[in-house]
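#struct-help
A.M.: can someone run this one for me? Single chain, 176 residues.
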Amino acid sequence: MVATFSALIVGSDFALAPFYNVKLLDTLVFVCAYVFGFRVGAFVGVVAETAWSFVSPIGMAGPLTPFLVAGEILFASAGWAAAKVWGSRFQPVSFYPLFIGATMAICAFLWDLETNLVTALLQYWPSPTLGEYLFTAFGPFTLPFTIAHEVSDLAFGVFLAPLFIVLIPRVFRGPL
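D.P.: on it. Structure tokens below:
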């Protein structure tokens, strides 16, 4: 199952590569954790992000890879927590998709903040300043990518995640 979803994620990442920071990775990690539990969601996130960090058409992530991978644990944790809150009561046509989208947008913000701060640390080592951290996290070169990531995760969380949460158990376990 981990291999199937990881391959689907990396394949979809290649398909969406022309749209920087728009990927199904976060959505599928969230959904895997929601449907199959934290461990499956986390493993899918670790395997898929590690693979993508080395085969991405924009280049290898190098020393940033462990932090990208750790960031995916946020999405697995959020998916697992959402399953604990809603579980089988999940209704795709309700307010739940808005909460999923908002949760994913918050996770995307935290993921971007973490990776941008680590990027600043690596770039300005050994003594980065607060200004360098802020410029790297919120400057004109990173802000468009951050916004694209958060908006796409919001949209995928509202529209695709609920669909996947309903359909994936039917595919892997049969009709409910």
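A.M.: thanks! The longest helix spans residues 143-173.
D.P.: also worth noting: The chain has one domain: 2-173.
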